[in-house]
Amino acid sequence: MARTQGSHSDITGPRIQAAALKLFAQHGYAAVSMRQIAKEVGVQAGALYNYTPDKQSMLFRLMKTHMVDLLTAWEESESPEGPLEQLRHFTRFHIRFHRERPEEVFIAYMELRNLSPENFAEIEALRGQYENALETILKAGVEAGQFHVPDTKIATLAVIAMLTGVNTWYRAGGRLSLDEVEAIYWDMVRKSVAP
Fold first, then answer.
1. What is the pTM of this model?
2. 51, 119, 124, 193: which has the fewest Cβ within 10 Å?
3. Among the listed residues 57, 41, 54, the one whose alpha carbon sits nearest the alpha carbon of residue 9
4. Which residue range(s) make up the domain with 20?
5. Please, what's the largest Cα pairwise distance for the chain?
6. How many separate domains does the chain show?
């Protein structure tokens, strides 16, 4: 099928990704068809295949982009000295980064089951890099006698799950500001590792 008149790959490609992100977050990956994505963008369904081989590739690209952006932002953030301050920094960073990307976060956690085994392995490796950043902080805190954590891997997963949970309920303009939420979550994280 011919490309829709006036469409451009540098515009249409990102629009397709944005439409897939929106629809996957609203309805779930399995419930969304290529035809729905095409309709959202305003192109013919066959035109999507000029930009992606299949729906699985779209899902994988969305997840990989999110994880790469997360890792890049973390690596570029200025981490303070000492495990306690690094843990505070991680807490704030995680809440802020994810709060600005609710659809990406939802897909990154809820749609893992729909990845092919090869794609799942690549996303899990990227997630592992991020988890290792937190676990390194926790291990340093244990070694310095600042934290008491019986199992740093379990603590890592628990802290990340708790912080990611902010996206499920926080709404701007609600009872608490994001700064207040961060302070409360930091207090909970700090107490969870206290000796």
1. 0.88
2. 124
3. 41
4. 9-52
5. 66
6. 2
